[in-house]
Amino acid sequence: MLARLADDGLLARPLPQQIEFARLNLTYVVLSKRKLIQLVEDGHVDGWDDPRMPTLAGARRRGYTPEGFRLFADRIGVSKADSWIEYSVLEDCMREHLNDIAPRRMAVLDPVRLVIENYPEGREELCDVPNHPQKPDWGKRQVPFSRELWIEREDFTETPPKGYFRLFPGNKVRLRYVFVVECTGYDKIADTVRCTYAADTKSGTPGAETVKVKGNIHWVSAKHACAAEVRLYDRLFKVAHPAGIEDLNPGSKKVITAQLEPALAQARVEEPIQFERHGYFIADRVAPASGALAFNRAVTLRDSWGKPGTA
User: Fold this and answer.
1) Where are the domains of the chain?
2) Does CATH place domain 21-103+224-302 in 3.90.870.10?
């Protein structure tokens, strides 16, 4: 028998080799199927495709990309020793790829109304805004501007702390891509910030730099804005090495109504987009019962986990 095998050349073939590598462990994540089933069956998440879940379906709805995962795999390498990889490494890889592929849009997540008192009522104009500041070949889009705008609530305060360069009574800022405005006051009853603008300071014109300001804030025309449901997802667990549901992060999902620039009404499902100053988002295929637009946050612009005053 051995002679026959030798004649057939089978004994000269190398034996199969098995190489085992360490399991990939991520902080703030559980990968145990038993614990994941409990999360789903007990209603702690919205199903297996919940964007907070460590599943392929969840990652896709979150806005994570295959290229981001490949970059993550390249960055961490392989090892035969058990180790824990910081979740921030995965987020950084996603940011790096999304920064390259995501067009920019303006969205106000916590809106307060701003009225430019000396801007003519009924007047509107279109502003040329780049789709990606590092990719001029992506061209520009036209964004409507009018007398009444939505701005972020955090971009105005009546009593500014030291180093605050945004809107407060008597201070000037630039509305991104358009004019310099000066805050004249705040109407508490109407919850409205009031200001005036300098007509000769429009971005891209010869007089744009006649007034020097330190603050630059984004905005959306109130008349043209489209409302949308925005889901702000964060880490599912509040500790780096969670034991189970007792370590769930109560702030891992926050649903808000945001005001978006009109171009976002045509966003394609699962299209990655950067909301300027906020982070990377994706148009979700799962719409709310109202039928409104829905966007999921994939990742913030920078890692703010665990820092005071952050979500």
Assistant:
1) 21-103+224-302, 107-218
2) no
Yes or no: say if 44 and 245 are a contact pair by the CB < 8 Å rule: yes
Q: Which are the contacts of 184, defined by CB distance < 8 A and separation ≥ 6?
A: 117, 169, 194, 195, 196
Total residues belonging to the chain:
311
Q: What confidence tier does 232 reach under pLDDT thresholds 50, 70, 90? A: very high
End-to-end CA, the chain: 71
**Mean pLDDT computed over every residue of the chain:** 91
For the beta carbon of residue 215, count every other beta carbon within 10 angstroms. 16
CATH code of 107-218, in short, is 2.40.240.10
Residue 11 and residue 7: Cα distance in Å, rounded? 9
- Whole-model pTM: value is 0.88
Closest C-alpha among 195, 112, 193 to residue 152: 112
**φ and ψ at residue 221, rounded to 5 degrees:** -60, 125
Q: Which of 54, 90, 108, 38 is nearest to 278 (CA)?
A: 108
